[in-house]
Design goal:
The protein is an alpha+beta fold. It has 2 domains: 221 residues, no CATH class; 146 residues, Trna Endonuclease, Chain: A, domain 1. A 5-stranded mixed beta sheet has the order 1-2-3-4-5, sandwiched between helices. α18 links the parallel β3 and β4. α2 packs across α5 and α4 crosses α5. It starts with 5 loop residues before the first helix and ends with a helix.
C-alpha cells in the first residue's frame, strides 16, 4: 500500500491564491477539511484491507490444516469449535466458530486475493502453491477478471461476507462490479441482493435503465461508517460505545434510563451497554442489559427514538430468544425484554416475554418488574425536559 502524500491529501488544491496573494479564510478551512477527509479515507481503507487480508489468511491456514493435518479425520468440523476455544484462551482475539467457517469460505471463494499478499505473507502459506490454491474452486471467471488489489480497496470484509453467501460465481461477480461502481454500503448491497437485482437484470429488456434506477438512491459507503463496522470493532479492540452513531439525545436517554432502573431498587444489576450479539449472520446491539437478582433472569432494554412498530418488538423478541438459548445458566429464569419507543407526542413501554405461556409465571414477572406506565411516564418527562432545554 502506498504512503499518503500531502499533495494527494490536499486533492492538488494549493492553499496560496493566484499571483502570490494571501489565501483567504475560506481557502484555509477548505484545505484543512480536505486533508482531514483524505487521510480519514486512507486510514479507513487501510484498516479494512488489513482486516480482509487477515481473515483471508485465517481461512487459508484452516484450509491448509484440514487438508494436511494428521488429526483432521478425528476432529472434522469440531476443529473449528476447538480452534475457537484455543484462540479465546490466548486472550489476544476471539473468533466464533461461525466466523472461522466464514474465513475458510472466503479463502475458497476468493483465491485471487493471494495476489495482493506481500512476499513475507506468501511465505507463511506453507505447502500452498499457486496451482494448489487455484484447484480449490471459487476462482474468478475468466470473462470478468477483477484484480485483487482493486477488490480490497473497494470492498470491506463485511461486503465479502455478504458476497460469499452467494453460491453462483456469476451472481457474486455481478454484485462485486455493481457494488464497486456504486460505492455501495454493506446495507445497500444486502438490500440489492434481497431485491433480486441480479435476477431482475437478467430478465430486463433495458438493463442500463434498471442499473441507473438501482444506483440512483443507493446508500454509499462512507469512511466514518466503515470504522463502525462490527468486524472492525473487534479487529481494532474498540467497544461499540466508542464508535456507535448514537445521537446526543439517545445517549442521554439511555444513561438516564439506566440510572432510573437501578434506582427502582427491585433487584436490577447493570451488566452491559451496547451489548453485541451474533444471530445467524447478523450482528445486533442491545442498548442495556441487566441481571435481576430477585427474578434471576436477564432484562434487555431497547430504546427506539420512533413510534412503536411490530418490527421493533420482533427484533427484541429475537434477542430475548437468543439470550434464553445462549446465556441462561442453571437456576436462571427466561430473560425478558423491555422496549421503549418514543417520539414528540408520547412514549410507550412494552415488555417482550418470549416463550412464557404460563400465566402465573408472567404474573410473577409483572410484580417484580416496573410497570410499563411508570417507565413510559419517566421517558416522556425526559423527552419534555430535552425539548424545553432546546427551546
Amino acid at each position: 500500500m502506498t504512503e499518503p502524500t500531502v499533495s494527494a491529501a490536499l486533492g492538488g488544491a494549493p492553499l496560496a491564491s493566484p499571483a502570490g496573494a494571501k489565501p483567504d479564510f475560506s481557502a484555509l478551512v477548505a484545505a484543512i477539511a480536505g486533508v482531514h477527509r483524505s487521510f480519514a479515507e486512507q486510514a479507513a481503507r487501510a484498516v479494512n484491507v488489513s482486516l480482509t487480508l487477515r481473515n483471508w489468511l485465517v481461512g487459508a491456514y484452516i484450509q491448509e490444516y484440514e487438508q494436511q493435518g494428521a488429526d483432521r479425520a478425528q476432529y472434522g468440523e469440531a476443529l473449528l469449535d476447538r480452534l475457537s476455544q484455543a484462540l479465546a484462551a490466548t486472550g489476544a482475539l476471539s473468533y466464533h466458530p461461525r466466523e472461522l467457517r466464514r474465513c475458510r469460505s472466503f479463502y475458497v471463494a476468493y483465491p485471487q486475493i493471494r495476489g495482493a499478499l506481500s512476499p513475507e505473507l506468501v511465505s507463511t502459506l506453507i505447502g500452498m502453491t499457486k496451482s494448489a490454491t487455484a484447484q480449490m474452486g471459487g476462482a474468478p471467471s475468466p470473462e470478468l477478471p477483477l484484480a485483487p488489489n482493486r477488490l480490497l480497496q473497494a470492498l470491506s470484509f463485511s461486503h465479502f461476507a455478504e458476497l460469499i453467501a452467494l453460491d453462483d460465481p456469476l451472481k457474486r461477480r455481478f454484485y462485486e462490479i455493481e457494488c464497486m461502481q456504486g460505492h455501495w454500503s454493506v446495507r445497500e448491497l444486502k438490500r440489492q441482493i434481497h431485491s433480486l437485482y441480479f435476477e431482475r437484470s437478467g430478465l430486463s429488456a433495458d438493463k442500463a435503465q434498471l442499473s441507473a434506477l438501482a444506483h440512483q438512491q443507493a446508500e454509499q459507503a462512507l469512511p466514518v461508517l466503515a470504522v463502525r463496522d462490527p468486524y472492525v470493532f473487534e479487529f481494532l479492540g474498540l467497544t461499540p460505545q466508542e464508535v456507535m452513531s448514537e445521537s446526543h439525545l439517545e445517549a442521554q436517554l439511555i444513561g438516564q434510563i439506566e440510572a432510573f432502573l437501578l434506582e427502582l431498587g427491585h433487584g436490577f444489576c447493570f451488566e452491559a451497554r451496547q451489548k453485541r450479539i451474533l444471530i445467524g449472520d447478523e450482528f445486533y446491539f442491545i442498548d442495556l442489559v441487566f441481571y435481576h437478582r430477585i427474578l434471576k433472569c436477564h432484562v434487555l432494554v431497547e430504546l427506539k427514538l420512533a413510534e412503536f412498530s411490530h418490527q421493533n418488538i420482533g427484533q427484541l423478541n429475537t434477542c430475548v430468544s437468543w439470550y434464553k438459548k445462549n446465556m441462561m445458566q442453571e437456576g436462571d429464569n427466561p430473560p425478558v425484554g423491555l422496549l421503549l419507543c418514543s417520539h414528540k407526542k408520547h412514549a410507550l413501554a412494552e415488555f417482550a416475554l418470549a416463550g412464557m405461556d404460563n400465566k402465573l409465571f408472567v404474573s410473577k414477572y409483572q410484580l417484580a418488574l416496573p410497570k410499563p406506565d411508570e417507565v413510559a411516564h419517566f421517558l416522556s418527562e425526559k423527552l419534555r425536559e430535552a425539548d424545553d432545554a432546546q427551546g
